[in-house]
Design goal:
- The protein is 25% helix and 34% strand.
- It has a five-stranded mixed β-sheet.
- The chain has helices spanning 56-71, 80-88, and strands spanning 4-10, 14-21, 28-34, 39-46, 74-77.
- It has a single domain, classed as 3-Layer(aba) Sandwich (Aminopeptidase), CATH 3.40.630.30.
């Protein structure tokens, strides 16, 4: 699998994680909204066809979760992908996911 590079950008109310893979066209991304200093909403994940099956969505979800843990935040998983990812790991993510 090619090397992945994940970047994060934010505004006062929104956040965006993006992942690219060496030698693969396109960019997958996950968007967030800041509900409060302690709570963020995972809005949506988009993975282009060129990245399907490469783990782009999982890489984005893992980075979101790691960053939220570090910041002491809770994630509200409105995004269907993040919700499904969290459901499969409900017990290990109970400290960071707000159902």
């Amino acid at each position: 699998m090619p090397d992945a590079a994940i970047t994060y950008s934010e505004t006062e109310t929104k956040g965006r994680y993006a992942v690219t893979f060496d030698g693969v066209e396109g960019e997958a991304y996950l968007t967030t909204s800041k509900l409060s200093a302690a709570t963020i909403i995972a809005d949506g994940t988009v993975v282009p066809d060129s990245m399907r099956g490469m783990g782009a969505g999982a890489a984005l979800a893992k980075r979101l979760i790691a960053d939220a843990r570090t910041a002491g935040q809770k994630i509200v998983p409105l995004c269907p992908f993040v919700r499904a990812y969290a459901e499969k790991r409900r017990e290990e993510l109970s400290d960071v996911i707000q159902w």
